[in-house]
Amino acid sequence: MKNDYNRNSFWVMKGNDGSSAFYIRVNGSLVSVPEDVYKVCRILI
Questions:
Q1: What is the mean pLDDT of residues 22-40?
Q2: Cα separation values, 28 from 7, 9, 23, 24, 25, Å
Q3: How many CA atoms lie within 13 A of 4 on its CB side?
């Protein structure tokens, strides 16, 4: 099974207030995901 994601598919954007927003790039656009989903998917690559 081919892994369609690479290290550039995962983004963390920090807000001015110190909060973090987690994203995964799907079909060329960033999709907001919960931190738990981000961490699990990031470990798998």
A1: 90
A2: 14, 9, 12, 10, 6
A3: 5
